[in-house]
Specification:
With 400 residues, this protein is mainly beta. It is built from two helices and 20 strands. The strands form two sheets. A 16-stranded antiparallel beta barrel has the order 1-2-3-4-5-6-7-10-11-12-13-16-17-18-19-20. The protein is globular, with a radius of gyration of 26 Å.
């Protein structure tokens, strides 16, 4: 090849490189995600004569912020809840959770902030929208302020959390029970107008929670676990007592079904004086728990039993998919004061379509603040409420 031809070849190669369009780079996913949801409910209560046809309204509007760059992680959620007249006729807004943390090289994590306690069946001890009795007694889907460490995922996992403070009332509301303006059911100060007027002024402090879980069987589908909890109860009069709880659980397939089982034993030791009661009850036979704007009494000693069975229906029906039918049963067996058991059973169906999610729940129970007119039913149970009542909840939620 002559020098002239060599120059022509080099020029042609440069021209090809210049004129060839560069391959578009793949967009890098942002570690920051912002989303939320808007949910609507239809509710029917068999004991509510003023609303024989039930009622419909906005349930929740929420904003979510999540961050994950592989090492630094964080999550926060703020909620606005609206309750039509059939559910109290008030509104509230609060911080559901908010934490920051790190993911280490071995995939274990550390969270600091308002975070979910890892206790028992996790992340939920239920399939339905209204959770289990454990939720209303403060042992399911509960958030407190502190530190949570979770080991790396694997056949054996363990989690440990320490929470100097409870879930807190980080928000506002349209009723007077400010201490109960929160998502998680914590021990709270009673309220004379919206509560029971007991004068109890307890709070949770310095809670330590530990959980271990083993994943066994084919493809590690079966989970067996144990959990423990201990913490202080401050009564506002300079006297601290303790609360303790333990749980065992199982989750896994049984043929085509999924089974969830849990047993929880708890005890709250209190130091109430004789005046801190209502209806002549032993003032140390109950504690006041509160969330969603209202406090109510819960037996200070009891066992909770949960048995849930679900079945995922394969396939689609038009634009709908992800069908799951379930029956969630839970009972609070009170071990103090001769109080009668509280029962909750929910039979339902959940499914989705795109960004929409739906629940159809038929609930039946007794001695339960959300399933009967007996607002104090998780503690004492008046004879006039000693019957099963029904609640229907139909929900549509748009998640973005």
């Amino acid at each position: 090849m002559t020098a002239r031809n060599t120059k022509r070849a080099a020029a042609l190669a440069v021209a090809i490189l210049v004129c060839t369009p560069a391959r578009a780079e793949e967009p890098v996913a942002s570690p920051l995600k912002i989303g939320g949801a808007v949910r609507f409910n239809y509710v029917y209560k068999s004991w509510q004569d003023d609303y024989k046809s039930g009622f419909f309204g906005l349930d929740t509007a929420r904003l979510n912020v999540d961050y994950d760059d592989g090492t630094l992680i964080g999550s926060a959620e703020y909620r606005y809840n609206n309750y039509p007249k059939g559910q109290g006729g008030y509104w509230q807004h609060f911080l559901h959770h908010g934490w920051v943390g790190m993911r280490f090289a071995d995939k274990s994590t550390l969270h600091v902030g308002l975070d979910k306690q890892v206790f028992g069946l996790f992340p939920f001890a239920s399939n339905n929208f209204y959770s289990s009795i454990a939720f209303y007694a403060g042992f399911e889907d509960k958030y407190d302020l502190g530190l949570t460490y979770a080991s790396k995922p694997g056949p054996f996992e363990w989690q440990l959390g320490f929470y100097p403070r409870d879930g807190g009332s980080y928000g506002g509301g349209g009723n007077t029970a400010g201490a109960s303006n929160r998502y998680s059911y914590n021990i709270v100060a009673d309220d004379s107008e919206q509560g029971f007027g007991t004068g109890q002024d307890d709070s949770e402090r310095n809670t330590l929670v530990g959980r271990m879980a083993w994943h066994v069987g084919p493809d590690a589908q079966h989970e067996i676990g144990i959990s423990g909890l201990t913490g202080e109860i401050r009564n506002g009069a300079g006297v601290d007592t303790r609360r303790n709880a333990a749980a065992v659980h199982y989750a896994g397939p049984v043929g085509p079904f999924k089974l969830m089982l849990e047993a929880v034993r708890y005890r709250y030791r209190t130091a109430h004086d004789a005046s801190q009661t209502y209806g002549g009850l032993d003032p140390n036979s109950f504690v006041m728990l509160g969330a969603f704007g209202y406090p109510y009494p819960v037996a200070s000693k009891g066992n909770i039993y949960i048995a849930n069975l679900s079945y995922a229906i394969p396939g689609k029906l038009g634009p709908f998919s992800g069908f799951k039918v379930y029956n969630d049963y839970s009972v609070l067996d009170k071990k103090i004061g001769g109080y009668k058991d509280s029962v909750q059973n929910v039979t339902g169906l959940s499914f989705s379509s795109g960004k929409w999610s739906f629940y159809l729940d038929f609930m039946r129970g007794k001695h339960h603040p959300y399933l009967s007119p007996d607002a104090g039913g998780l503690a004492a149970t008046p004879a006039n409420h000693d019957r099963f009542t029904r609640r229907i909840n139909l929900q549509a939620g748009y998640y973005f």
